[in-house]
Amino acid sequence: MQDMYAEDAVFDVSAVFTDVQPKQGHREMRGYWNELQEVWSGIRVDPIEAFDLGGDRFIVDLRLSGKGQQSGAEVEQRFAMLYTVRPGDGKISDARLFQDVAAAEAAALNDP
Predict the structure, then answer these.
(1) DSSP 8-state secondary structure symbol assigned to residue 76
(2) Is the pTM of this model over 0.85?
(3) 3-state class of 31 per DSSP?
(4) Which terminus of the chain has fewer CB atoms gathered within 10 Å of its CB, N or C?
(5) 37 pLDDT band (50/70/90 cuts)?
(6) What is the rounded distance in angstroms from the CA atom of residue 82 to the CA atom of residue 21?
(7) What pLDDT does 99 receive?
(8) Domain extents for the chain?
(9) pLDDT of the residue at 6
(10) What integer pLDDT is reported at residue 51 of this predicted model?
(11) Cβ distance 98 to 107 under 8 Å?
């Protein structure tokens, strides 16, 4: 998955998980993803639908699911990711998580 991201990309889930600071670069992103795997068993992020916004931006409607390692609680939640792709190399330069597609669309309109 990391290969899709530019070396200096920003991965930001703070609009949903307010206690998580944005991660920049492969090392920080990898560290965060490793933490998620320590907390969640069988964590999955499945795309449901993608929306092309033009200008190298798109939104993906996602389903996140997993089971808490300690609690055993199963979670399934829908979110949306707003991606910006760098035109030169086709790598993701910015990825931001939102509660839903409408929130991602609003963010995209406010941050052209």
Answers:
(1) E
(2) yes
(3) helix
(4) C
(5) confident
(6) 17
(7) 97
(8) 2-110
(9) 97
(10) 97
(11) yes
Q: What's phi and psi for 35, nearest 5 deg?
A: -60, -45
Per-residue tokens: 16: 């949903």
2-110 has which fold? Nuclear Transport Factor 2; Chain: A, (3.10.450)
Report the 10 Å Cβ neighbour count for 101. 20
Does 112 have pLDDT greater than 70? no
Amino acid (one-letter) located at 45: V
What DSSP character marks residue 56? T
Contacts of 70 (CB under 8 A, 6+ apart): none
Measured CA to CA, the distance from residue 65 to residue 74 in angstroms comes to 7
Residue-wise pLDDT tens digits, 4-33 = 999 999 999 999 999 999 999 999 999 999
SS3 81: strand
